């Protein structure tokens, strides 16, 4: 009988999720629970390009997400940014469907600038990390 030298578990990390403070605030305000957040993250992990890119947002996507026991019609709209090359997904903000249908043009301009800053920050961190090697 052969005994293996070692037994290991390989975990393949597909994305790092980063929540912006507005997202967490509005998630709680909408009455959504941690279990629902886990389901959203699992869905986005498997389908990071699911939502359409919003024009003028510099890459932000939007999906409709149902509230437990209510369905998509009474749910929320989740705005997120997936940066595939760095395996990072930002949960940016959300809107409750009964409060507001979409982001305003002014909000989109601000978020597009935020996306530019986030991409630059991630790129600079990668460069710093590679210089240490």
Automatic annotation (TrEMBL):
Q: Top-down, what is the taxonomic lineage of the species of origin?
A: Bacteria, Pseudomonadati, Spirochaetota, Spirochaetia, Leptospirales
Query: What is this protein identified as?
Result: PF06296 family protein
The species this protein was found in: Leptospira santarosai
